[in-house]
């Protein structure tokens, strides 16, 4: 049984944007244009999505309909 939510509807843009890494070792995350916080790991990103009502979001991280990774490779959050 698939518990993944249906793809978002609307403008065609992904509702979750993981922005370019910052100098503070992290990436700003916006959900439907609202800032969710600074993610330093996939676990942080999942927590932001859980708070936004997507409790089973692990499978969505690599789905371009849901998450747009800007200015860097997916799952990388800055220099260590």
Q: What do these coordinates show?
A:
This protein is α+β, with helices and mostly antiparallel strands and 80 residues long. The chain has a domain at 16-69. It is built from one helix and four strands, in the order βββαβ. The protein has one helix at residues 42-51, and strands spanning 16-22, 26-31, 34-39, 67-69.
Radius of gyration: 12 Å
Low-confidence stretches: none
Based on secondary structure, the structural category is: alpha+beta
Number of strands: 4
Count of DSSP H/I helices: 1
The helicity comes to 10-25%
Strand order of the largest sheet: 3-2-1-4
Terminal CA distance reads 39 Å
Q: How many strands, which pairing sense, and closed or not: the largest β-sheet?
A: 4 strands, mixed
Q: What is the chain-wise order of helices and strands?
A: EEEHE
Mean pLDDT: 87
Strand content: 25-35%
Which geometry do the CA atoms define?
A: globular
Could you list some keywords that capture this structure?
80 residues; alpha+beta; four-stranded mixed β-sheet; 1 helix; 4 strands; 12% helix
Write the layout of secondary structure elements.
Elements lengths: L15 E7 L3 E6 L2 E6 L2 H10 L15 E3 L11
Summarize it:
With 80 residues, this protein is of the alpha+beta class.
């Amino acid at each position: 049984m698939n518990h993944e939510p249906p793809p978002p509807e609307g403008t065609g843009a992904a509702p979750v944007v993981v922005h370019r890494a910052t100098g503070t070792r992290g990436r700003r995350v916006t959900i439907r244009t609202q800032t969710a916080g600074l993610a330093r790991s996939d676990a942080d990103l999942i927590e932001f999505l859980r708070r936004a009502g997507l409790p089973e979001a692990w499978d969505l991280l690599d789905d371009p309909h849901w998450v747009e990774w800007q200015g860097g490779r997916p799952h990388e959050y800055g220099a260590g």
